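Quick start: load a record and inspect it. Here is 6-phospho-beta-glucosidase:
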Amino acid sequence: MKSYQIDPNFLWGVATSANQVEGGWNEDGKGMSIADCLRYRPQLDVTNYKAANSISSKQVKEAMSDLSTKNWAKRHGVDFYHNYHEDIKQLAAMGISAFRFSISWARIFPNGDDQEPNQAGLDYYLDLVKEMNKYNIEPIMTLSHYEIPLNLVLNYDAWYDRRVIDFFDKFAKTVIDYLHDYVKYWIPINEIDSIIRHPFSSAGLIEDRFPNKNFKNVIYQAMHNQFVASARIIKYCHETYPDLKIGCMITSTMVYPYNSDPRNVLRATEIMRNVYAFSDIQIRGKYPKYLLKKLKEEDIKIEEEADDTDLIKENTADFIAFSYYSSVCTAYDTTGLQVTKANRINGVYNKYLPESEWGWQIDPIGLRLSLIKLYDRYQKPLFIVENGLGASDVLTSDKKIHDDYRICYLRDHIQQMLISLVEDGIDLIGYCVWGTTDMISASSNQISKRYGLIYVDLDDEGNGTYKRYRKDSYYWYKKLLSFGNKIPMSFFDEPLTHVNESAVS
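Running the structure step on this input writes:
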């Protein structure tokens, strides 16, 4: 029987973030974060992502004055904070070898500028990683995943303020010192390129707080400060804990030209270069010339300190982590063309691809192309830390979730990944399904756009028992992992009609 043979040390995992699952938003000393200010909003204007992802000072004040969780889904999440022992046990039973998650910065330093860390927060994460280690699950730690402490927004203008680099430095080193014996892989900042698309959730930037400044300049200054902060952490780990591996992370949405018109090909190339600029800086150690030219043309001036250039140059990441969900097309002139959407961006509809319930076009080959392009560009190990499908799952009367659509999505993407490993010579550390249990969607702050392999009985209004139920996709992934490092090619041709507990027990 022919099979895909992969490295026995390849990490098969799942992924989530603290702000989307934890809950416990005001318990055990945790401070308020920007994620606690994001209201449930199922109707997004996807034709204007800048507006859809913006927030005003007035909206923040409204969030601060309402201490309930009803309209603020990320405040309750799926209560992972109180259920992590059972959740990890269920995921371990599936056979995973890696779990990517994030730290809530405000659970460690409630205000961000505190003199001492919150011990209850440190102890929570210590117990969490020990629980993973108990099941031989490799923790993959993200230090900052869309939830800077709100106090740093209100009193320091968030990542625009150079002082926040120092606050992040203190937070990150505190966590690393406390957990380094249990965590090998670290990612300082999630999807660092996302600051351009959604500056509030990525960096805590509120445009009306900068009335006399060019907001685009503010964004790029905050971007630079994040690069400096990341380089500091890489330097600290390489010098203090040389066995640790520190990665950078970008969003990989494959962008195609709408057709073979060279002007459309050029437009697609320009967009992809803008994404690669963020990994260029963290892997090659310097701003690419095309980005510097862009900043000069747009009269954007980044203020740097004397050692910033050398710090970024000398402290590059060990691996490139990335998320991949879908692809889009683009054209130099989009007049009259159908608009589609992807991971917080939009583009032109691709007639060759199906789309998800939320309009994201499903493109497994795009994942293989992402692997090839990133590896050819950098010759550094890659890590797929997010890949999954958001859909409206239905819990049947007999407590089953028949999500064949998710299995199809995972099957086709994983197969393309395996083909790339075998045929393209890619150095790949691992693959993580997004997500674990269901979670609160990053953009719309709703749970009905479900990503998990385990269903959580909870609705968009926060009503439900929070009870967990394994989906058919859980059992499909479990069967895949049962093959170890030799996965039969025939597995990807099997019918999906009976992918349930009996099929893998």
